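Run log, item B.
One chain of 295 residues. Sequence copied directly from the ordering sheet:
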Amino acid sequence: MLERDGYIAGVPCWIDTAQADPEAAVAFYGGLFGWQFEDAMPPGSPGPYFIARLHGGDVAAITGRPEGAPPEARWNTYVWVDSADDAAARVRAAGGTVPMEPFDVMSAGRMAVCADPDGAEFRVWQAGEHRGARIVNEPGTLNFNSLSTRDVSGAIAFYGAVFGWGTVDMPSDSRMWALPGYAEFLEQSDPGHRERMAEAGAPDGFADAVAILSPLGDDQIGVASHWSVTFAVEDADATARRADGLGGHVVVPPIDAPWVRTTVITDPQGATFVASQFVPGNRDVSAQTGSATAA
């Protein structure tokens, strides 16, 4: 298990979810993933910010829903940047919006809430003391962030301008967002990363992958463009059963897809996510067999 200490600009680095009843969400995700929690807010704060930890490392957070926020719970994606103010300016220049201007989060860092031209919301994070997720790609931690969009070409232009992302084709309708140079960054703490990707048969450029790009299909009428999260799990079937027992809803039962077995789950307050089990034996499973995306 590798523990990370920061990211490079353009890499999704953190996730949190705002819920009407954060204590209930703590109980759900603690039971589902074994997370331990600590409220990072000082005494007298208007609401909690529960940092979730696994094996002692920060992995995610749960907070209360701010006044005036949308009623539905959801998982939020944060992208590491060198300057939240400069990133917000790039968002505007590329045709996006900044619903919440850059602001300081005590000594933790500086952030802004942004949205792409098709309305998919994300956050940018300029790190201070908080260095993002310390553990990823382990069971019970963040595996991937995904953009589901109705405007693929517009998204490619926008995120390329804001973060320098390109795309890598996959054996399905989805593509991977790739950040040139990310593989070299990972090699510093995980030597052999690129070699292992090549040996596994990953497409050219996959070692630079930072997120997923999925088009919204004609069968998803009414679903707005959005960012979502995928958690790694040891057993997708067991995770689905456990989520159901904790009051969640299994939207898409576990299915096999290339390299993985996945299931889509909604927590008791409505935040949807994917749980993904890595299955090397599924390497040659047809993409048409089915795929799970958080809609």
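Observations after the first pass:
- Residues 42 and 48 are 9 Å apart (CA to CA).
- Residues 22-33 form the longest helix (12 residues).
Flagged for discussion on Thursday.
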